[in-house]
Amino acid sequence: MSKYSFLKLFSLTALVIVLLIACTDVVTEKIVDNTITQNSYHEKHRPQFHFTPEANWMNDPNGMFYYEGKYHLFYQYFPDSTVWGPMHWGHAESNDMVHWKHLPIGLFPDSIGCIFSGGAVVDNNNTSKLGTETNPPIVATFTHHNFDGEKAKTNDFQKQSIAYSLDGGSKWIKYKHNPVIPNTDKIKDFRDPKVVWHEETKKWILVLAAYDRVKFYASTNLIDWKFISDFGIKGDKRLWECPDLFPMKVEGSKEEKWVLIVSIQKEAPNEGTATSYFVGEFNGTEFKSEIESQKWLDWGTDNYAFVTWNNVPKKDGRILGMGWMSNWQYAQIVPTEKWRSAMTLPRELKLIKSESNYALHSLPVKEFKSLRGKLTSLGALEISDEKILEGDFSAAQSELDLTIDLKNTRANSFGLKLQNDLGENLVVKFNKSEGKMYIDRTNSRKNKFSEEFFKNIHSAPIDFENEKLNIRLIIDAASIEIFIDNGALSFTSIFFPTKDFTTMSLFANDGVAKIMEAKIYALDGIWN
Length: 528
Ligand code: FRU
Prior knowledge:
The chain is globular, with a radius of gyration of 23 Å. It is mostly beta strands. The chain has helices spanning 3-9, 14-22, 147-151, 451-455; strands at 56-67, 70-78, 88-94, 101-107, 114-122, 138-145, 158-165, 173-174, 190-198, 203-210, 213-219, 226-232, 240-249, 256-264, 274-282, 287-289, 295-296, 304-308, 319-324, 339-340, 347-354, 357-364, 372-388, 397-405, 413-419, 425-431, 436-440, 458-461, 468-476, 479-484, 489-494, 503-523. 46% of the residues are buried. The chain contains 4 helices and 32 strands. Residues 59-60, 76, 87, 116-117, 143, 191-192, 241-242, 305 line the site of beta-D-fructofuranose.
């Protein structure tokens, strides 16, 4: 169910009345209690090392930039409820993208509308003249969404606006002549502007999602934007959201490509919503893709709206990003009580070329390793049937690193099982003859809160032709992130067992699975 139809369900309730009032013309800056309170962060299903809001609803990561030693994260936030509502930009900052400090809300709804997704750039040369040479402004681009217009079906209720900060991202001033990109063509889905600097033409390029395609705009000052081109797939009528565009060096060479990320609201590989990408060329006006259809940044159901950090120092040079670890099919009814949703781990992207094929690989950022605690080294293992793994770790907060000897593995299928004493489980399975991996969460909770969540076993293609297969699995209370062969494939999935999973086992069917090395790390939490 999309969030829009979900919201309709609530239309007779007092909640919606509050929502509508909150986003009409009469609202100026809304006053909410911005005090950051102490929280135990040990509620049921609370991730211990993934970013979550202290309370209430969160979706997409927004406006991420690095400035003066701090990584900033803004996010779609509704401070009044655990379901989606008039969007604000919540705010947090970090020294390492791993440990986060919650900060007061960055952007509030106003007379034009609520604040939907977008990006932020550090305007180092003060091209916007909104700051000074010595104190460059940080400029956020976002969509103003107006509920009155949506209700009246005006079709131009989404417009692009900007806000700027002169104090490193704490206080934001909305530009007084917003919107900067009005919706003159009246496109119903017209949102999520993200900006990148294009060095060759010395222009800012803004990419936004316009229903079944993206549109590009150019500007010299982040304020006056000119439409330059659009890009889509012929015949594709799916809804595109949260695009991102950036140049990237091909790993191990000087070759540069442009990557266009788009999140897709429907018909992802495992249904529902997912993040995809194209690799191609961008000449300052047009994007041309090497590939006809997009590839998937993550094959799991729960990595949406993945976007990257702006202004990462050149000498660092990494492409860093994060996604929302949920899916619109069920995000609003997952059984967490105080808050809803987490972000994925921060990830580094690499562009890998093999023959003429370009692919994005992703792995948790290296800073994540600082959370590793005690190591249980199980060495080489031969698995036939099932083996419970024991050591200095708890199954619900751990990282496993397995290297499978594929050449000498006779078992056709093998994998990992997490379970609790209620008989609930999550199964990760690799099947050689089918050339696939599977995540089965259909039995991960007795009380099935959503049909869609439990309906299918999810899968991804795996190449079993190599001599070895490396599988890295990171488990955090209610999520698993799987990275195959150094990030060549990633798979993110959430689950909500009635009680935490306490047992971790390896299994093999129809023969022996040979594991060359098995390591398990206990992982520290980030919330004290
Ligand atoms: C993606 C999205 C965006 C929109 C935001 C609203 O998850 O639908 O397109 O800006 O969520 O919260």
